[in-house]
Design brief:
With 102 residues, the chain is of the alpha+beta class. The chain has helices spanning 18-25, 28-33, 49-72, 76-86, and strands spanning 4-7, 12-15, 90-95, 98-101.
C-alpha cells in the first residue's frame, strides 16, 4: 500500500502506513538523513514453521512502532526536513495509542 496524499485546507497531508515505513526503511538516502528509519528487525526464532511468519510480522510491527515513536520525538527542524523530503506539509499515521498528526 502506498502513501496517500490528501489535499486539505492547510496543504498536502501524507498518510503514512506501516508499508510506507517499511519502504522508507529500504531507501539508503532516507536512512542516511533519518537514522531512525534503520529498522532493527533481527532473525526470528519460532518453535515451528507455522509460527515463524507471525513472529516475523510481530518483529516488523515492533520495529515500525519504534520508528513512529522516534518520529514523534523529532525536534521541529528535523521534522520539517522529514516533511520536505517526503514533499508534505502534514504527516498523519496511526500508533498503538491513536492517530498522530505532525
Amino acid at each position: 500500500m502506498a502513501a496517500r496524499a490528501v489535499a486539505g485546507r492547510t496543504g498536502k497531508t501524507l498518510l503514512l502506513s506501516d508499508d510506507v515505513f517499511l519502504a522508507l526503511s529500504n531507501r539508503s538516502d532516507m536512512q542516511a538523513l533519518f537514522p531512525f528509519l534503520r529498522l532493527q528487525i533481527g532473525p526470528v526464532s519460532a518453535t515451528c514453521r507455522c509460527n515463524r511468519a507471525a513472529a516475523q510480522r510481530h518483529a516488523q510491527l515492533t520495529a515500525i512502532q519504534a520508528a513512529k515513536n522516534s518520529l514523534i520525538a523529532l525536534p521541529a527542524e528535523r521534522l520539517a526536513a522529514f516533511k520536505k523530503a517526503l514533499g508534505a506539509d502534514r504527516i498523519e499515521f496511526y500508533t498503538r495509542s491513536g492517530k498522530k498528526v505532525l
